[in-house]
């Protein structure tokens, strides 16, 4: 029954994060844009940044949860965890959707994968399951980091060229 609760809460968090993406699109917040593409370097840098934030957040909230002694404090920490996941999830959406766009693939699997990542960080009860989830995440992330994107424009836009290659300046 515990798993069904975690699945339901993750689904709700995912829906709220989609509303944040929609809000960002309506207010022209470029960092929350799902359109466009990310090359491998941008993906890896974003991946390291987001996973570092997620791990630091998990360590922080786990230490808070260990020091909880009364029920209101428990629910305060739980609300903090929900808020943190809601704030991080849109950035995971952007990261995976835009990387899939670079591979000329639709972005929906990236959204589902992002929700799965948040689910795995919400479900701590079985250690063997966490190890399996971690191995799956590492394999998928390695796959996305190693497959080169299309070098030509596709239906999601021109290739993401960053960092730009330096032009040689010749002096006579």
Automatic annotation (TrEMBL):
The keyword Transmembrane applies. It holds the Pfam family DUF805. The lineage of its organism: Bacteria, Bacillati, Bacillota, Negativicutes, Veillonellales. It comes from the Bacteria. It comes from Veillonella magna. The chain crosses the membrane at residues 6-23, 43-61, 73-96, 103-124, 130-147. InterPro entries: DUF805 (IPR008523). Keywords: Membrane, Transmembrane, Transmembrane helix. This is DUF805 domain-containing protein. The keyword GTP-binding does not apply.
């Amino acid at each position: 029954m515990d798993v069904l609760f975690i699945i339901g809460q993750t689904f709700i968090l995912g829906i709220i994060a989609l509303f944040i993406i929609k809000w960002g699109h309506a207010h022209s917040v470029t960092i929350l844009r799902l359109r466009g593409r990310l090359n491998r370097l941008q993906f890896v840098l974003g991946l390291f940044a987001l996973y570092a934030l997620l791990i630091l957040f998990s360590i922080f909230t786990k230490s808070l949860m260990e020091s909880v002694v009364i029920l209101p404090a428990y629910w305060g920490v739980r609300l903090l965890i929900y808020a943190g996941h809601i704030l991080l999830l849109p950035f995971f959406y952007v990261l995976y959707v835009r990387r899939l766009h670079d591979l000329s693939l639709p972005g929906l699997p990236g959204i589902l994968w992002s929700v799965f990542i948040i689910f795995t960080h919400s479900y701590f009860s079985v250690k063997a399951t966490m190890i399996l989830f971690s191995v799956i995440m590492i394999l998928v992330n390695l796959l996305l980091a190693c497959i080169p994107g299309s070098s030509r424009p596709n239906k999601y836009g021109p290739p993401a060229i960053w960092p730009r290659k330096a032009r040689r300046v010749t002096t006579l």
